[in-house]
Specification:
Blueprint: E1 9-16, E2 22-29, H1 32-41, E3 45-46, E4 52-53, H2 68-83, H3 88-98, H4 102-116, H5 121-126, H6 134-146, H7 149-204, H8 212-226, H9 228-248, H10 250-262, H11 266-287, H12 292-302, H13 306-320, H14 325-330, H15 338-350, H16 353-408
Antiparallel strand pairs: 1-2, 1-3, 1-4
């Protein structure tokens, strides 16, 4: 197979030669890393930050961020290439050229340079912890040590795809009602700030007593108009405070995780999601030959909920003292359902724990699908009712005086 050509660009560079003299020049290459490597081959030392794409400036558009979906696609493409017998370095070139995200292309070429320099794939991935988590690196390392990297890459790709699909389902369940509620609040605010005052001025000329509901809405409108910036400031402060508390306070995150498990409908969705992640991650790591005790740290981190994370770490301690995985899970039936416990027991007895865990993960991922559909079906009439009460109430409040005048006439 012919080596794929990467997209080249013109770079300006500045460095020092062996005598310490500053030298400058231009070079056409696939990336800044390639320029750096070529300069070192020529005996030149490039200066930090002095290799730039020609025509770039401080005001150039920001690079597109690398998403978890990009990593999932990269995993599948690399797994497919290597399983087809394509050498790793050549596979990097092919995958880099075909990727639509320039930032991901740059990252792949960095990985290629590290591997070409003699590093392992696992050590190269470990240099980019923001994109490749500990679980990813550990699985690749296990594959390289066992000589089954192609197989492990395929398992990683499947794991990443399943995980991303699960996340997208949960986002789908949460995004729709949030967007509708935000739109409802914005529409209500527009009516109260711009529409209601117009009606209020018109009612002032009637000289008749207004209905209590209309007076309440007019008063609410006056309050909002007079303090609009205060309300906006409060909303912004609450959103900012929530984000900061979630980022910095472990206790607050734990509270939110506990709340998510106890809420109607959302609790079932969260529980099924955490169990699916637990089973899928443990199945992938166990299939890679990672011992159960060592795997539990990564499994706990991948569960997505601090309550489950704490419970899984307790399972790790139990296993370390000689307790079976089934017996340890059975001690906490509030979090780990009977089906999971029984399937784990069958897997331990038959020596096919990874297969049983995969089946459990499939089952609970399907359960997440059902939970998302049920939540959406339940939320739609509730949202419609909310919109009818709020928006319809404002409209009725404005037309009540007109109806009352019509009756008098």
């Amino acid at each position: 197979m012919a080596k794929a050509k990467t997209k080249n660009a013109s770079f300006t560079w500045e460095g020092t030669n062996k005598k310490g003299q500053t030298v400058k020049g231009e070079m056409v290459a696939a990336s800044a890393d390639v320029v750096k490597a070529e300069l070192r081959k020529q005996g030149l030392t490039p200066k930090k930050g002095r290799i730039r794409k020609k025509g770039s400036s401080l005001f150039a558009p920001r690079e597109k961020p690398i998403t978890t979906k990009d990593i999932a696609v990269f995993s599948r493409q690399l797994a497919t290439m290597m399983k087809a017998g394509v050498p790793m370095v050549q596979a990097f070139d092919i995958v880099a050229e075909g990727h639509s995200n320039p930032s991901m292309t740059k990252l792949i070429l960095k990985l290629k340079s590290n591997v070409e320099a003699g590093g392992t794939l696992a050590s190269s991935l470990a240099q980019h912890q923001a994109q490749f988590d500990e679980l990813f690196v550990n699985l690749v390392d296990a594959g390289e040590q066992s000589g089954a990297l192609e197989t492990l890459l395929e398992k990683i790709a499947t794991y990443k795809e399943k995980t991303e699909a699960l996340k997208s389902k949960i986002k789908k369940a949460m995004t729709y009602p949030i967007i509708v509620l935000v739109v409802a609040v914005i529409v209500s605010a527009i009516l109260l700030i711009f529409v209601v005052p117009t009606f209020a001025d018109m009612f002032a000329d009637f000289g008749a007593e207004l209905p209590a509901f209309t007076l309440f809405v007019v008063g609410l409108s006056d309050l909002l108009v007079e303090n609009v910036w205060l309300f906006i400031g409060i909303i912004v402060a609450l959103i900012y405070g929530f984000k900061q508390a979630k980022t910095r306070s472990k206790a607050f995150r734990n509270f939110l995780d506990k709340l998510a498990l106890s809420l109607p409908a959302i609790g079932i969705l969260t529980t099924n999601s955490s169990i699916a992640r637990f089973a899928r991650t443990l199945a992938t790591m166990f299939a890679a030959g990672v011992p159960l005790v060592e795997a539990m740290d990564s499994v706990a981190g991948a569960s997505g909920n601090s309550v489950y994370q704490k419970a899984i770490m307790k399972v790790k301690d139990d296993i370390a003292t000689g307790t079976t995985l089934q017996a340890s899970l059975a001690q906490n039936k509030e979090l780990f359902p009977n089906m999971l416990i029984q399937m784990v027991g069958i897997g331990e007895e038959s020596g096919a724990l990874d297969e049983m865990l995969d089946k459990v993960a499939d089952y609970y991922e399907t359960a997440v699908d059902d939970a998302v559909d049920n939540l959406t079906a339940m939320m739609e009439p509730m949202i419609m009712a909310f919109l009818a009460v709020v928006i319809g109430g404002l409209v009725i409040a404005m037309y009540l005086p007109i109806f009352k005048m019509g009756e008098v006439v």
